[in-house]
Write a structure and sequence with these properties.
CATH topology of the largest domain: Rossmann fold
CATH class of the largest domain: Alpha Beta
Strand order of the largest sheet: 1-6-5-2-3-4
Number of strands: 13
Helix content: 40-55%
Distance between the termini: 60 Å
Oligomer: single chain
Largest sheet: 6 strands, mixed
Number of domains: 3
CATH superfamily of the largest domain: HUPs
CATH architecture of the largest domain: 3-Layer(aba) Sandwich
Length: about 400
């Protein structure tokens, strides 16, 4: 086990690193806490950064404890949010959790993971317990949370219930006797709340390992809010295509946190990109092939690459274009919406205005284009959406 790589590669911060190094060097088996809020069930490759790190710790002999936040999901994680989340019912939370776990165990070893539901301890929580927990933190401590502070200063709605979220997440660490809690850098405040609470209760405070947040397809932090994610449930072709659409600037970070490329080779990639001696497109295809292979299979990744090259490099049409049949002369806007290439007429107009729609290989410039039955014309939207109108 390379402790240095465990604690540095793809890691933004470790609290407290020197102490955690000693515990790892001692051979002690640690309990690694990973919680998730099943408000939304879909995972993207940004989540996989932390999950890959958990898997590396598992391979070194440590135990993952997955916390299903079935109680705090009804409050909503305030990290980075400027509004109150709607509360979810228990049935929705459980359904989302099942979907999430199916994706979680594509990366993390199920056999070496202990799954715990918050309702195990919060289900019997009394008012006395809740008041005792609330009394261990001050308002000043809670307002040190950047999002809380901003909403408070702006006079936006900020409920006492939301202020309880970091305390409840911290209590999870007490309930499972966490040794290390994992999270993105946006979770630092919540993770430290667990460390604080454990110390107050006479327990050994958990360590905190934070992984970086990666940029999405538009360069901003990857997240559902920005609609810029690469979801791990995408088809191999769509996943590969989204990664190929990334900017060249993400390559060094993506190779570091989402692949097992040796550090020496990673240094060569960085140097090659900086010096202009490396071909970014070739590196991007290698990266895409690696990531698709992780979530699907190497064979699926190879097939996706072949289709991508045929369609976008050699400019050939895909082999399996769906057919959309019309029975009378039909306007292009109707075709786009009825075939599912655009969700609405307004979006169809936006796509045409932006030059994103082609008919028979030619850019559509007018909203008035009419196609007749049997036209056998391929309509293309963007780079990966096609339909054959006949």
């Amino acid at each position: 086990m390379d402790i240095n790589q465990l604690l540095t590669r793809g890691v933004a911060e470790v609290i407290v690193e020197s102490e955690l190094r000693q515990r790892l060097a001692s051979g002690e088996s640690l309990r690694l806490k990973q919680g998730f809020d099943p408000t939304k069930p879909d995972m993207h490759i940004g989540h996989a950064v932390g999950l890959r790190k958990l898997r590396k710790f598992q391979e070194a002999g440590h135990q993952v404890v997955l916390i299903v936040g079935d109680w705090t999901a009804q409050i909503g994680d305030p990290s980075g949010r400027d509004e109150t989340r709607p509360r979810l019912d228990a049935a929705t939370v459980r359904k989302n959790a099942e979907t999430f776990m199916e994706q979680f165990f594509r990366v993390v070893d199920r056999e070496r993971t202990e799954v715990r539901w918050q309702s195990e301890w919060f289900g019997s929580f009394t008012l006395e317990n809740a008041l005792d927990l609330a009394g261990r933190f001050t308002l000043a401590q809670m307002l040190a949370h950047e999002t809380f502070r901003r909403r408070y200063d702006e006079g936006a709605k900020l409920t006492i219930l939301e202020l309880m979220y970091p305390m409840l997440q911290g209590y999870d660490s007490v309930a499972i006797s966490s040794d290390v809690e994992f999270g993105g850098t946006d979770q630092k405040f919540n993770n430290l709340a667990g460390r604080e609470l454990m110390g107050q209760l006479g327990m050994r405070p958990q360590h905190v390992l934070l992984v970086p947040l990666i940029p999405g397809t538009d360069g901003r932090k990857m997240g559902k809010t920005f609609n810029n994610t690469v979801d791990i449930t995408l088809s191999p072709f769509d996943m590969l295509g989204k990664i190929m659409s990334m900017s060249d600037e993400v390559l060094p970070l993506y190779f570091e946190v989402l692949t097992d490329v040796p550090l020496e080779e990673l240094a060569e990639i960085r140097a090659g990109l900086a010096g202009g001696t490396a071909n970014p497109r070739n590196l991007k295809m290698r990266l895409a092939r690696d990531i698709v292979g992780q979530f699907h299979s190497p064979a699926a990744a190879a097939a996706a690459e072949e289709s991508f090259v045929r369609q976008f490099v050699q400019r050939e049409l895909p082999e399996d274009i769906p057919v959309f049949t019309i029975h009378e002369p039909t306007n292009i806007l109707q075709i786009l919406t009825a075939s599912g290439l655009a969700p609405s007429n307004s979006e169809a107009r936006r796509l045409i205005s932006g030059g994103g729609v082609r008919a028979a290989g030619e850019r559509v410039a007018s909203f008035d284009l009419i196609l007749s039955p049997g036209a056998d014309v391929v309509i293309q939207v963007g780079r990966r959406k096609f339909v054959r109108v006949g």
